[in-house]
Structure formats: structure tokens, C-alpha cells
Amino acid sequence: MIPQKKRGQMIVLSGPSGAGKSTVIAELLSERSDIYFSVSFTTRKPRMGEEDGVNYNFVSEETFQAMVERNEFLEYAKYVDHYYGTSLKVIEEKLDAGIDVLLDIEVQGAAKVREKCPGAVLIFIFPPSVEELSRRLHGRHTDSEEVIEGRLRQAQIECSEIPNYDYLVVNDTVSKAAAEIMAILTAEGCRVKYHLDLMEGV
Ligand code: 5GP
Predict the structure, then answer these.
(1) Rounded to whole angstroms, how far apart are CA atoms 150 and 113?
(2) 43 CB less than 6 Å from ligand 1?
(3) Residue 200 CB-half CA count within 13 A
């Protein structure tokens, strides 16, 4: 008999601000409650409605630097003016327990995860077009034109990293994007290589 899954799958999701990543992730997790969403550490201040320990672990720059020095991050990066990092300990515990782990991280962090965890599956989310991205950013009515322009420029830089990802999901509608990600995860779980690893010693 082919043994069942041994180690959890590391799933990395990236995409520019305005791509609708958080909404797609919420939809995905409502369907796949067995996936663990990694709560990152950040030095930025909480936004309205964000909760410490739920959306992020909000820490001071001193605390963050001390964690860097103690090698407590799987990866970390500076994005715009703040630091963001993924706790190594929590991720390892979950993967060892056979639980799939989802990281919502930007492109520099994703590149580090690719280096350290070659088995990770990297997915990039993008809206149907740059015009749609601009429309969504304007539609939020939360940022100035200058901030929006900055985000659109940042989005272009991020898009240049798409070739380093395994999959591109176009977020046309949230339910379709979440369904595509679930399909990717199902396919990844069926890879022959993955089963060969599992059959070692059988
Ligand atoms: P925001 O401040 O809008 O919540 O996040 C800004 C960017 O930081 C997003 O692209 C998000 O994916 C990324 N991010 C969140 N947590 C982490 C992390 O732990 N590591 C890295 N490298 N990026 C992160």
C-alpha cells in the first residue's frame, strides 16, 4: 500500500497590493480549514480592524532585530518602510506534523523560501489587468493618488518576479481564484516524485 502523506506542503502566495490576496486567502481557508495560515511578525502598526496575533504579530523594531539575530525567521524582508518575517519554529512544527502551511509574503521573501525549501509551491496572484489593479486601488478610497502611484510602481517590480513562481492565478472572481489554488494543491499532492519520497523504505 502507498503510505499517506508524511510532511506538510509549504504554499507561498504573493501578489501586489490590490490583487485581492487577503480575500482569496479567506475564501481558500474557509474551504480548506486543514491549512495553517502563517501569522507573520511585522514592525508596521496595525490598521483599523487588524488584531495582534491574528493578522500579524505586531512587534517593535528592537524585538524584530533581536529575532533576526537569534535566527528565528525562515525568511524576512523590508517592504516599503517596514520589516516582515516568518517564524521558523511554528512553520517547522506544523510541517513536521503533516499540516500544510500557507505563507502570504512578498517577492523577496518568496525567493528566500524557494532557496531554503525547494519543495515549496509558489503561486502568484494578479488581477485581470493593470487597469483593473488601478481601478481596485482607487476604489478603496483609503489612499492618496501619490500612494496609489507608488503601489502601481511597486506592482510592476513585483510582476518582474513572476517567472520565478510555479503558478499564476488571475483573480477575476474570488471564488474562481480560490478554486484554482485548491486545484493546484490537489495536483501538487499527486506528484509522482512526492509519492516516490513517501515510498522510501517501503
Ligand atoms: P501589508 O502591510 O499590506 O499587510 O503587507 C505588505 C506586504 O508584506 C504584502 O505583500 C505581504 O504579502 C508581505 N508580507 C506579509 N508578511 C510577510 C512576511 O512574513 N515576510 C515577507 N517577506 N513578506 C510578508
Answers:
(1) 26
(2) no
(3) 6
Confirm if 40 and 32 have CB atoms less than 8 A apart: no
Question: Of the residues 58, 104, 157, 159, which should be mutated to test ligand 1's pocket, given the most ligand atoms within 8 Å of the CB?
Answer: 104
Of 174, 162, 165, residue with least CA distance to 20: 174
pTM for this prediction: 0.92
What's the Cα-to-Cα distance from 156 to each of 13, 26, 103, 111, rounded to whole Å? Answer: 17, 25, 21, 17
Q: How far is 178 from 14, CA to CA, in rounded Å?
A: 14
Predicted confidence (pLDDT) per residue in 78-127, tens digit: 998 899 999 999 999 999 999 999 999 999 999 999 999 999 999 999 99
